[in-house]
Protein 1
Amino acid sequence: MFATSSQRKYWTFSGETELAQLRKEANERYIKTHGTKINEDSWPDYFFTVPEERVLCRHFEFLLKEFCSRFQPPMPKYVLGTSLCYFKRFYVHTSVMDYHPKEIMLTCVYMACKVEEFNVSIGQFVGNLKGDREKFANIVLGFELLLMDKLHYHLTVHNPFRPLEGLFIDIKTRCKKAEDIEKLRKDAEAFIEKSLASDACLVFAPSQIALAAILSVTSREGINLDSYVTDVLLEGASEENLKNTIYQIKRIKYMVKAQEPIARDQIQRLQRKLQACRNQDNNPESDVYQKKMEEMFDDEEENRSRKRARYEEEEEAETRELLGV
């Protein structure tokens, strides 16, 4: 249940102001760590600003959505919702300069497929990509543990699509004035998909987003569900709870409606800028990263050899003891 979930406890924030502050802190941490060899006066031109990070993140959120919509076999909507939620969570506390959004985007989708039990192999997954599929597979598998760590292993995501279905069933059962509600399903789902492009999943409960979707599309069709919400859905709720619910619905509608277009004219410039200022330790194509991975594999092989030698010694000692030698 969402009320007792890690999503509510650790990944639901007070609003866009808090999110902006956390993203600003992540940006400043990166610049402070990697700006020691660069003149401070050059920082604004060399490193990303917080608004620039948001532009690039939104661009890759759009690409993530496009990738999911074209995926074969067809991907359920809740896998898209979980993927975007992972991606947004990742960049709350991490700068795009530290980890490239392209690599994290693919890893988020692959992880969501696993968690949501949409079973596809890594071969099937990268088969939906153009280019060097072996390289993509290595990147996704290489960043999988990192992603889980950055999400603090809170992998269960409560999406608005499920409560939306519950609301449709409830309205058809207990609200006679909205018997034709089913014809508005696509519009309601479209509202939720649009909400995924905002920070709504980091601020509001999934049931609130679903209710906002229903009320938005019904009001547009001239269907008044006020009595259903106050007298049926929230029957027995205090006046304070009713006011708070109405307030949250208004906030969601505003957040979804007020989204600005992605500044696509900036994307190429930002991509070039990212190539210069990104953390090469986390760039799979850099010599630094490849050397780090080789050292890690060498260490792992050395540890395995030590364990194997120790096991053989213990086995030999047990044999001598058994034979009384």
Note: The radius of gyration is 25 Å.
Protein 2
Amino acid sequence: MTAAVIRGVKIFQEVGISAGTAPSGASMVGNFPPGDGDEEQNSPAPFRVIVGIAVYYLFSLLLFIEDEDHLKKIAAYKVVEYVESGMVLGLGPGSTAKHVVDRIGELLRQGKLKDIDGIPTSKKTHEQALSLGIPLSDLNSHPVVDLAIDGADEVDPYLNLVKGRGGSLLREKMVEGACKKFVVIVDESKLVNYTGGSGLAMPVKVIQFCWKFTASRLQNLFQESGCVAKLRTLGEKAEPYVTDNGNYIIDLYFKQSIGDLKAASDSILQIAGVVEHGMFIDMATTVIVAGELGLNVKNKY
């Protein structure tokens, strides 16, 4: 972020604005600088100030996004250190996990990794892995997975996760539930005090049949936590989002903690029409957190 601010200030100055001063030949009260009628020269000073500020913040934002992606890449390279030749790997989707798959493909091409079998948890990851030449398999052939690597939408202090805002929670839970080790990579913005603490969605996958009925039951289940249940939609027409397995997703939003996660999980899964939910309880063995100060590795045991 510091680099973004410094570069943003340079851009800010390049458009003719320095701290507390107007561009050369202009006053800050709206006088026009001398010129020959050129539109740029005759722009009022306050307008140029506004443009300069807008450019500054725009580039700061873009550079912050760039820095955030760089943090994800650092975390991804760290987690690949857990990968050894001959392993069966669960490969998750998401922006951070994408860097993991890229890195594994690179190490295979370099001959530094051999005899890897990947089990992707989404169609998108499947396509990415194929394009990189990573050999693929499935749980039918490999019911025990050596290592699964994935991101998360939330991580609580006990390493419980919320996942599935990308839509692949069922396949993710199947693969990651079959692994010996499950390593999660996130940036520090994903850390929360309690599950649902970000105020963002905790997804529940449901069948399409009578989804409104199912959504109503889910919302009533967590009424004391201020739950709001919404069907996930796409595009201007708000068409229902359909998962890789042909299901809908009901996003649950909580205003406060839902308490005992295992009890909440059992209650959700007892509702007819629910396929799976996005709480990954006691599943992560290691969480690698990327922040501005570096990497923080949290181990379950």
Note: The chain is about 35% helix and 20% strand.
Protein 3
Amino acid sequence: MLKSCRQLLGSDARSNLYRNQNNWLLPIRSLHSTSVLSKETVQKANLNSQNDSKFKPLTPPKDPRNIAPPNSFLTKASLLFQKIISPKQNMFFEATSTARYMYYEASRQATPERDSQDAFQFWFRRCEVPMTFQSWFQITQLHLWILQTRIRGLQPQEKQALSQALVTRFFEDMEFRIHKDYRINSDRITGMYLKDLFQQQTGAIFGYDQSMLGNDAVLATAIWRNLFAGSQNVDLSILAEIVAFVRLNVFELSNTSNEEFMTRRDALFIPPGQQIEKVY
């Protein structure tokens, strides 16, 4: 459990926040020091455990296009009744369906999914971002923010419904990954993590929004602070590539119509590192 907590947070600094809640594990740790296993065996097991935690792959998301539509008569009748009688509720239903695909496109960029290998190699190999839950969260959050810049151009009701559905899907998937990938089944600990991630999301959105009013240096600072956690060992050329990737995708999405943006079911993002001409 303690190892999963540190792996999830991706930072020893954050793990200190929860250290006091694990004092009850001290008697159990004392038992491990008197284990009958040899020191060589214990050291080898610890080394393998560290390697597994550092390069642990994340679960690829499920493609919503492969989910079969409802076939029962009652379900179809209910959807038709909802569309005719309650247009507002139907708008939220359609926004949920659209947000499910948009979130799939954003979250698969940081997972070893078959059609996103180029993005996966860029973030975790070229950028040398550690393969942790925290890194997946920040990469996914960056892609969701790029989508949010276009969602803000929709009609007020569509904007509210789609934004809410996208955030809801994000936190549902985070809770699922905490339970599945890291086997943390405590609702109390999961709730603490989600609150911390919500604060990180709020700060990231504020920083990215502020960078849109500034220049590339402001955007690069926001990316460096969130994605790289303020590390001093970051190649400036990598930051320049990410800034170009963000600017290009924001520009391309801004040129799509509302109808095309809401009904689009192909790739939403241009892969990072692609050679482009000046677009702004």
Note: Residues 152 and 159 are 6 Å apart (CA to CA).
Protein 4
Amino acid sequence: MKITRQKHAKKHLGFFRYNFGVREPYQLLLDGTFCQAALRGRIQLREQLPRYLMGETQLCTTRCVLKELESLGKELYGAKLIAQRCQVRSCSHFKDAVSGAECLLSMIEDGNPHHFFVATQDQNLSLQVKKKPGVPLLFIIQNTVVLDKPSPKTIAFVKATESGHLFSVHQKQNIKKLKEEQGLVKTSEPKKKRKRKGVSGPNPLSCLKKKKKVQDSNQSSAPEKKRRKRIRNRNRIKALSVPSVRQSEEVQSNSVH
């Protein structure tokens, strides 16, 4: 029985992988009802789900699911502990929280681009999920986890894409990537935002004191003394020479007499 269940799971996973690009690690969105059923059936989700899906899994939930479990009180305390151990995926309900079912439905809108699995025991939520193509559905029956077969809505969508009338999100992404590789689509470069200049203060360089010029090592540190040029006064020399000549003449005249 276990081998047959894994064969069906492998077949369904191959369908979602080929047509919708579902890949590892599989992201499983858990609600409160699924956590409560796993607690009652003593199912070790972190151990059994990777074996059943034959791949790496990530157990996820949302803030709305956690708040819903908190509001329900002590009866679902164990389910709340299981949900708190899961990774919390951000939803669009930051201010006003909604019900867990409504939040999970919002996470798989627009063609389920993040390839979420939905794990729930809520029948109404399961019917809403089956109306959205490309969303794998998990539930617990007889204390075992089961991957539901593709819904009629999903099969009809795949047939429409094969006939060329519709394109899935995965196919659109592949077509866009091929066009970019072949240069058919111009990839727009992100524009750089100009930085606004704020009120600038004084230039710090202008506030610095001026540095004295450093003299070359060849030049001596002490200033050179200027040499005085001796200028001869020619008129004074002449004036001194005239009386000496007169004295010599007088000496000669006296000697004659």
Note: Residues 24-161 form a domain with the Rossmann fold fold (CATH 3.40.50.1010).
